[in-house]
Amino acid sequence: MQLRLPQSINILILSSHKATETSATNTEEAITGKAPVNQFIHGVALADAQFRNVVTPNVDTIFSQVWYDLREEPMIYELPETDRFCKVQVLDAWTNTAAVLNPANVN
Fold first, then answer.
1. 66 near 72, Cβ under 8 Å?
2. Which domain holds residue 98?
3. Which tens digit of pLDDT belongs to each residue from 47-93?
4. Which of 80, 83, 88, 103 is the most exposed, having the fewest neighbouring CB atoms within 10 Å of its CB?
5. What b/e string do you get for 88-107 counting C-beta neighbours within 10 Å, with b at 16 or more?
6. pLDDT in tens, 1-51
7. CA distance 49 to 47
8. For residue 46, is it within any domain?
9. Is residue 85 part of a domain?
């Protein structure tokens, strides 16, 4: 059975936002050099030994990151059109995978 999802996916994560808020604000180092909330920061180079944004990064992947603030309303994420491999891994505050979005399971 193939899962069919709409082109625009409305992601609503229901959990204790206090834990998410605490993990996002408990140290300055956690946010230094990152984009503002609800804005992506896109990597421009492949991961090397100094890369610490992901625990075990793929060395052939350029990473982008965003912290979504879902306290007021859900966010809509539209998958980009691309002729290259692209997936979006949605993580919770404890780095558990909540969803993996890619063009192959959206059409």
1. no
2. 1-34+66-107
3. 888 877 777 777 887 778 888 887 788 777 777 777 777 788 888 77
4. 83
5. beeeebeeeeeeebeeeeee
6. 334 444 434 444 444 444 455 555 544 444 555 677 888 888 788 888 887
7. 7
8. no
9. yes
